[in-house]
Amino acid sequence: MRISPRPVCVYCLVAATMHMLSATLPAGELPARPNVVFILADDLGYGDLGCYGQQQIRTPRIDRLAAEGRRFLDCYAGSTVCAPSRCVLMTGLHTGHARIRGNALVPLKPDDMTIAEVLHESGYATGIIGKWGLGEPETSGLPTRQGFDYWFGYLNQQHAHNYYPDYLWRNKDRVPLLGNQQGQRGEYSGDLFVAEALQFLDQHRAGPFFLYLALTLPHANNELGRETGNGMEVPDVGQYADRDWPAPQKHHAAMITRLDDAVGQVLDRLEKLGLTDKTVVFVSSDNGPHSEGGADARFFRSAGPLRGKKRDLTEGGIRVPMVVRWPGVVPAGTTSDYAWGFCDVLPTLAEIAGAMPPASIDGISVLPAIVGAKLAGREMVAHPPLYWEFHERGFQQAVRLGHWKAIRPRTGAPLELYDLDRDLSEKQNVAGAQLEVVARCEQVMVTARTESAHWPTPMIDETKSSPAAP
Question: How far, CA to CA in Å, does 107 sit from each of 111, 112, 117, 353?
Answer without folding.
Answer: 11, 10, 16, 27
